[in-house]
Write a structure and sequence with these properties.
Low-confidence stretches: none
Distance between the termini: 31 Å
Largest sheet: 9 strands, mixed
Number of domains: 2
Number of strands: 14
Strand content: 25-35%
CATH class of the largest domain: Alpha Beta
CATH architecture of the largest domain: Alpha-Beta Barrel
Radius of gyration: 19 Å
Helix content: 10-25%
Length: 278
């Protein structure tokens, strides 16, 4: 093993984040989390496209794909990988440094940060039997201008995640202030009703993950009609099958939300296989 660096700031191993970086002072930035296999980011075109789109929403010029790929190769040198070993990269792009006040300086140079971590280990039971969700009391506020993007202000998720300590709960289900189902604290959500697959509308709040986007494109392969819909908690609880997804674990079936349970079914594992090999 060459070096054990775990982060890179603007392409440098010894640069620190400035105390006046707007990502730190205001959460003025966006991020993505992805798997790295053999030094390569999995689903990179989706991740980069989403990073660019999220930056554009808040008016940040996203660093080029070449620059970020260069950073990834520095942080995940190919010779450090045993064959097929998976690790995790988090890319953070902030607006850069700024003086006091909300108005961004006329010219800013975005700060780009890459963080390397180990792939989380998920219990075998999550794959074999599915996962339990806690219904969170914390509601997602409506803000259509920021809806869908993965910005650095994640206090709602943090408050929601603080609601349970129970190890048997995998994630928390979050509703908006109108009681519509939106997402989980770290996952997107799908409900199958017959041969229809629904995922919540994220035009008012929530994070539109790239795994959700990929799954929406799998309808014909799965023999299901996929659509984005407004879902109430009752819609969700009466669905035939539920699963959650993100870029790290792929997809897990939901077998319980508080006291409501579902029997084990195959859709989540089918999707996980397609996401991994497709």
């Amino acid at each position: 093993m060459a070096h054990h660096h775990t982060s890179l700031v603007n392409g440098s191993f010894d640069q620190a984040i400035s105390a006046v970086d707007r990502g730190f002072t205001y959460g003025d930035g966006v991020f993505r989390t992805m798997r790295i296999k053999d030094g390569q980011p999995i689903s990179w075109p989706f991740h980069y496209q989403k990073l660019v789109a999220d930056c554009a929403v808040i008016g940040i010029v996203c660093p080029s794909a070449e620059l970020l790929m260069c950073d990834i190769q520095q942080l995940f040198p190919i010779d450090e990988f045993q064959n097929g070993e998976i690790s995790v990269a988090k890319i953070i792009i902030t607006r850069g440094e700024g003086e006091r006040g909300y108005a961004p300086p006329a010219v800013t140079i975005p700060t780009r940060v890459l963080i390397k971590s180990a792939m989380p280990t998920y219990a075998d039971a999550n794959y074999a039997q599915g996962v339990r969700l806690h219904l969170c009391e914390t509601r997602l506020a409506l803000q259509p201008k920021l809806a869908g993007i993965k910005h650095l202000n994640r206090l709602e998720n943090i408050l929601a995640r603080m609601e349970w300590r129970d190890e048997s709960v995998f994630d928390g289900l979050m509703l908006d202030t109108h009681n519509n189902v939106i997402e989980c604290t770290m996952s997107n959500l799908f409900a199958r009703v017959g041969d229809h697959l629904y995922t919540p509308d994220l035009t008012q709040c929530g994070v539109a993950g790239i795994t959700r986007q990929r799954i929406l494109g799998l309808g014909s392969l799965l023999g299901l009609t996929c659509s984005i819909a407004t879902l109430s908690l009752q819609d969700l609880l009466s669905a035939d099958e539920l699963f959650i997804c993100n870029s790290l674990y792929g997809a897990f079936q939901v077998t319980a939300i508080d006291n409501q349970t579902w029997e084990q079914q195959a859709l989540a594992s089918t999707i996980r296989n397609i996401l991994t090999h497709g």
